């Protein structure tokens, strides 16, 4: 395995993750998920040996990370944190080119092959029109893509990204995730990225690491999701304590959308309602009566009227 975690206990003055065991190989795309404060970023820093383990070991290419120099870690792992310092007066091209620094002396000039690679990455990330734009003038989303571009030019065998899609709209989120998966499969890279959105796993990840109750659950995406109801159940979308969900029979996506809609609009018990999606029509049963709605807007109006 390229990355191996053995009986690792992770934290600072308190334990965040206890006795963790997990592994990833080159070509894997792994999503790291868990609530705020459970230790996702601390785990990443432990892999980079920026945070010492309380117990256990972490290996990269069969070498204990505590025995690797900063340069050796940089050669093996490219990292993008969710909050990064913006280099003053750098353009997009400058920042992305900076990923080559580990292969050159402090003052360096890229060769033609490196320049071509930087240009290709800028194109892949849909940043061509911003190539010469100062970083301070970029939107949060394009700035995040530029930092990801820097990690890609580093050409490390492993890329770790901490919340890489936080500031991105759907279009740019898909560009980033498709680019990462393409890298993993075509260039045999190991990609580990964290996110709050577990649904990304079903589309883009092979493996999942889920931190809960100081445990690290790892494995094939579908296996881990089905072992934890909160990762597939609509209760994930709970937004108020007074809401009691109705019975909903529909495909999972529509079920999630309906439950989210109802919780946002009705802070009360809706257990007397039964919903079923028949083709594109929602059939709603309430007090022995059947109602039909063609849209979520119609559902909100109906429930407001009946309840």
UniProtKB/TrEMBL annotation:
**Record-linked PANTHER family:** IRON COMPOUNDS ABC TRANSPORTER, ATP-BINDING PROTEIN, METAL TRANSPORT SYSTEM ATP-BINDING PROTEIN TM_0124-RELATED
- Any GO molecular function: ATP binding
Q: Which organism is it from?
A: Chryseobacterium kimseyorum
> PROSITE patterns in the record, alphabetically?
ABC_TRANSPORTER_2
Database matches in SUPFAM superfamilies: P-loop containing nucleoside triphosphate hydrolases (SSF52540)
Keywords from the UniProt entry: ATP-binding, Nucleotide-binding, Transport
SMART domains tied to this protein: AAA
The record, for InterPro entries, names: AAA+_ATPase, ABC_transporter-like_ATP-bd, Metal_Ion_Import_ABC, P-loop_NTPase
Record protein name field: ABC transporter ATP-binding protein
Q: Domain ABC transporter spans what residues?
A: 1-238
State whether keyword Transport applies.
yes
């Amino acid at each position: 395995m390229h990355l191996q975690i053995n009986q690792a206990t992770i934290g600072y003055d308190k334990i965040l993750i206890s006795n963790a065991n997990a592994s990833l190989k080159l070509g894997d795309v792994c999503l790291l998920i868990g609530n705020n404060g459970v230790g996702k970023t601390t785990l990443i820093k432990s892999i980079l040996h920026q945070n010492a383990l309380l117990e256990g070991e972490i290996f990269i290419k069969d070498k204990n990370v505590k025995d690797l120099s900063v340069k050796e870690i940089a050669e093996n792992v490219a990292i993008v944190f969710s909050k990064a310092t913006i280099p003053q007066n750098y353009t997009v091209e400058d920042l992305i080119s900076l990923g080559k620094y580990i292969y050159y002396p402090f003052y360096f000039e890229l060769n033609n092959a490196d320049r071509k690679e930087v240009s290709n990455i800028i194109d892949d990330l849909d940043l061509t029109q911003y190539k010469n734009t100062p970083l301070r003038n970029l939107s949060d989303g394009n700035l995040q893509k530029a930092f990801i571009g820097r990690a890609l030019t580093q050409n490390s065998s492993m890329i770790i990204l901490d919340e890489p899609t936080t500031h991105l709209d759907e279009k740019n989120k898909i560009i980033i995730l498709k680019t990462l998966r393409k890298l993993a499969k075509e260039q045999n890279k190991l990609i580990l990225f964290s996110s709050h959105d577990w649904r990304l796993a079903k589309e883009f990840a092979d493996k999942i690491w889920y931190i809960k109750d100081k445990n690290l659950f790892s494995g094939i995406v579908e296996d881990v999701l089905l072992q934890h109801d909160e990762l597939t159940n609509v209760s994930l979308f709970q937004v108020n304590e007074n809401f009691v969900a109705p019975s909903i029979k529909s495909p999972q996506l529509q079920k999630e959308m309906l439950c989210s809609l109802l919780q946002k609009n009705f802070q009360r018990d809706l257990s007397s309602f039964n919903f079923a999606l028949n083709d594109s029509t929602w059939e709603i049963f309430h007090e022995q009566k059947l109602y039909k709605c063609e849209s979520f807007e119609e559902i909100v109006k109906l429930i407001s009227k009946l309840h």
